[in-house]
Write a structure and sequence with these properties.
With about 400 residues, the protein is of the alpha+beta class. The protein folds into 2 domains: about 60 residues; about 325 residues, Porin (Beta Barrel), CATH 2.40.160. It is about 20% helix and about 50% strand. The chain has a 16-stranded antiparallel barrel with strand order 1-2-3-4-5-6-7-8-9-10-11-12-13-14-15-16. The radius of gyration is 33 Å and the shape is elongated. The chain starts with a helix and ends with a strand. The relative contact order is 0.11. Keywords: Coiled coil, Signal. This is Porin. InterPro entries: Porin_dom_sf (IPR023614), Porin_O/P (IPR010870).
């Protein structure tokens, strides 16, 4: 009986060993097949890497052969029709702008903006236009958090000063507060840096040329901010301007920003007038929830000097609020209320009050038709409507 049990056990053990040997052989065959697959994949990977290297080399050769391979061209333009009480209706191709940019390498870039205003420039009242170089600077990335620029660039202030292409804002004309108080579009020459100090939090700092608000104290435009833009055209640089901005965008749909600029003498040391240090404070908020958006901005200048005070232009302030609603991808409606004082050509300290309502129709996200109705009160008393068309590419 014991021998039978032992024999049965031995037979079972031999059978188990035979099955294990068979399974081991099958496993070896599977491993061998997997090794062949891995070898095939490795070969394909090497071939792909070789092709990518060849493509990169070819692209470098093409870039070397074509000096414009890393050059970009863009632009924007806008046509306006204005019809107000007590004024002749007017149609004007207000702006025709071309952008030219070039990427020298992954860290170094050039950008420029060349503009023709009012279609025709030259001597005489029948040629009201201007040819202007609004931007021409080189930008360099010192790191992923620090970018610098040198040359002629837009001052980091307000909402539309840096982003003013027609499809990006509501209304045919740019709002009066940012036009007269900030004053957009405003560019200077100098050095600037952008510092990303935390996710959604950045600081801009710039040292640039400044404004010159005095040609003659008796001139009706003396000490008006917009008339003080020198546009970097043989501009007086006796007194520079220092600008800082903090911007917060960490919350989706929200932008909060504040700018402070200080200029040691906004008269550029003009003879016969007091030295006039000037400080600009600007703050704005943009908030968008789904298809509803609201913009609000406040800006104020504080200007020293007896001459500015005697003209009532030692303080120049403006603000506006603008809600809008995107009805569809094509249509959007908006309303805007704005107040600002010391408008060009009027020494009155009474504010201009502006109420505007209108509609935008985007034929394409980069092509827009606009219409609005506007009523002006305060030191200006008029009403009318505007039609416009704009594009960017």
């Amino acid at each position: 009986m014991k021998k039978s049990i032992i024999a049965t056990a031995l037979m079972s053990l031999f059978a188990t060993n035979a099955m294990a040997a068979e399974e081991t052989q099958e496993l070896r065959e599977v491993i061998a097949e997997q090794q062949k697959v891995l070898q095939s994949l490795e070969k394909r990977l090497n071939e792909t890497e070789s092709r990518l290297e060849a493509t990169a080399d070819q692209m470098d050769e093409n870039a070397s052969a074509n000096p414009f391979a890393n050059t970009t061209i863009g632009g924007y333009g806008e046509l306006h029709y204005n019809n107000y009480e007590d004024e002749d209706a007017e149609i004007d191709f207000h702006r025709f702008v071309l952008f030219f940019g070039h990427e020298f390498d992954s860290k170094t870039r050039f950008f420029s903006e060349f503009e023709l205003e009012h279609s025709l420039a030259g001597d005489g009242e029948d040629k009201p236009g201007e040819v202007e170089l609004e931007q021409a600077y080189v930008e360099y990335d010192y790191s992923k958090n620090i970018t610098t620029k040198a040359g002629l660039f837009l001052v980091p202030v307000g909402i539309i000063n840096e982003t003013h292409e027609p499809p990006t804002f509501y209304g045919v004309e740019r709002n009066g507060v940012e036009k007269n108080i900030i004053p957009a579009t405003w560019w200077e020459a100098g050095l600037a840096g952008n510092f990303k100090v935390a996710p959604g939090l950045s600081i801009d700092a710039a040292i640039t040329s400044g404004l010159n608000v005095v040609n003659e104290v008796t001139d009706k435009n003396a000490y008006l901010i917009r008339k003080g833009r020198q546009k970097v055209a043989e501009a007086s640089a006796e007194n520079l301007a220092y600008t800082g901005r903090v911007k917060y965008t960490a919350i989706p749909g929200l932008e909060l920003a504040a700018t402070l600029q200080y200029q040691t003498d906004i008269t550029q040391s003009a003879a016969g007038v007091d030295e006039a240090a000037a400080t600009l404070i600007e703050a704005h908020a943009i908030y968008q929830v789904n298809d509803f958006s609201i913009r609000a901005l406040y800006a104020t200048w504080d200007i020293d000097g007896d001459e500015a005070e005697s003209l009532g232009r030692d303080e120049q302030t403006g603000w506006y609020v603008e809600p809008s609603y995107k009805i569809s991808e094509e249509f959007g409606v908006f309303a805007r209320y704005a107040e600002y004082n010391n408008q060009a050509g009027d020494s009155s300290s009474e504010a201009v009050e502006t109420t505007t309502v209108g509609i935008n129709y985007w034929l394409h996200e980069d092509v827009v038709f606009k219409a609005d109705v506007e009523e002006l009160g305060g030191s200006k008393d008029s009403k009318g409507f505007n039609l416009g068309f704009g594009y960017q590419f």
